Amino acid sequence: MIANIKKYKELMYFLVHKELRIRYRNSLFGFFWTLLEPLGLMLIYTLVFGYIIQLDKGVSPYPLYVLAGLIPWTFFNNSVRKGTRALSGNASLIKKVYFPREIFPLTMLISNMVNFIPAFALILVLAVVLGHPMQWSELILLPLVILLQALFTLGVALLVSILNVYYRDVEFIINLVMRAWMYMCPIIYPIHMLTGAEVSSTVKDFAGLYFLNPMAVIISLYHQPFFPDQGPEIKYVIYTVILTVVLFLGAWYLFRRMNRRVGEVI
After folding, report:
1. Residue 35 — φ and ψ, nearest 5°?
2. What sign has the CA pseudo-torsion 38, 43, 44, 46?
3. Are residues 67 and 123 in contact, defined by beta-carbon separation less than 8 angstroms?
4. DSSP secondary structure string, 32-57?
5. What is the pLDDT of residues 164-184, one digit of tens each?
6. Can you tell me the distance from the alpha carbon of 70 to that of 78, in angstroms, rounded to the nearest whole number?
7. pTM for this structure?
8. CA 118/CA 134 separation, integer angstroms
9. Where is the ABC transmembrane type-2 domain (predicted)?
């Protein structure tokens, strides 16, 4: 894959540029929607879940907690959803010219990464504005967390993009799964609601299964530099790293095997 990236880097640059241009075409605010959308969602979630439903107990400031989980989730959600149609949406190009088709899911990942980096800077800005302390030792490790999430996201995108060529139901299933998956991650509620001392034993037993969700662990790692008590246990981090590597290698192998008939099926 790395060799293909080097060989077709100009094509990838063109596809990423095209994706970004189409996304913000005829938009009044253009690229600023990268910042406006998460800020708008943060305000909505803070109002609904923080002040009305009151899920903010134990995390303060709650808007920072929501934003620190929402931005990584948006990156994952957009990359997977767009990645699902990465091949089926480029059928005309695939039929005309041959080149490594894993470039398409990778392009979706990179284009969303371009949006993710400036959006993530909002978290740091908000922390400074609110005067909230940051754990610099944890903050330095965030590039590794981003790499882990990118690898996991690419593995999922490779898998669903190739399956969607053969089974178009995948696109509809993914839309449903992603909606449910968000609420299985610590974005609008703190981790201690599952692991705190006042929590029932039934909920604590469920917490062990909860952290088998790799995105719950990854988002908790984004929270850790700002909310140290909201980080996952090291055993769940190791599990997530191993699962990510296995998923990526398995998805890439399956993609290469099923890719042979994409031109005919699509």
Report:
1. -95, -35
2. positive
3. yes
4. GHHHHHHHHHHHHHIIIIIIIS---T
5. 888 888 889 999 999 999 989
6. 12
7. 0.88
8. 19
9. 29-258
